[in-house]
Specification:
With 215 residues, the chain is an all-alpha fold. Helix content is 77%, strand content 0%.
Length: 215
Amino acid sequence: MQELLLAFLRSLALAVFYVASLYVWWIVCARNTLFGEEPDQIVRRFISVGVASVVSIAYVHGLLGIDLSFIGLLPRDWPSFLLGCLLPLLLTAILFLGPLVQWYLLSWEELFEDTTPIPSRVWKCLTNVYWLRFYIVAPLTEEIVYRGCLCALLHEAHIASPAANALVAMTFGAVVFSLSHFHHFIERSPTGEKLHTLPSLVAQLVITSIFGFYS
C-alpha cells in the first residue's frame, strides 16, 4: 500500500511539474498576465514543456531505473512497437470518424476551392506556432509525460498482478491527465466570470478522462 501511495504521489508530482512549466515564463519574464497567446510566449512554452519532458524521462529512467522501452521511447521489438503505434491511431481515427464525416458533409466544397499547392500548405502549417502547438508539441509532450512516464510509474507499483497494475495505471493516469487540463478553466475566465465556463470545463474533464483511459 505504501508503494502504491508513493507511485500516486510521484505521478501527481510529474503532472504538476508539467503544468507548472507552462507558467514559469510568467515569473522569469515578469509578465503582467499569465494567459498570453502571443507567438513569443507560445515558443517559450514549447521550450519549457520540452525541458519538462526531458526531466520526466531522466527522473523515471535515471533515478528509478524504469526501462526506456517500457516508457515507450525505445521499442522492445519492432513488430510490437509498430502494432502499438498503429492500434491507438486506428482507435483514435474511429473515435473522430463521426465529426470528420460531419465536417466533410457540411464543408466538402472548401476542399476543392483552395488551389494552394500541398507543399505550400505544409510549410504554412510548420511555420505556424499555433498549429505546431495543437498538433505536434502538445500531443507529443503529453504522451511522453502522461502516457509514458506517469503510467510507467503507476505500473511499477506492483499492486497485485500485472493486470491490476495496468488497470490502476490506466484509470489513475486518465484522471490525472484530465485534471491537468483544469488550468484552462482559469485561463479562459481570468475576469472572474468562471461560472459561465464551468459546463464546458466539466465536459472537457469527462472527455479527456475517457480519452485518456481508452487510449
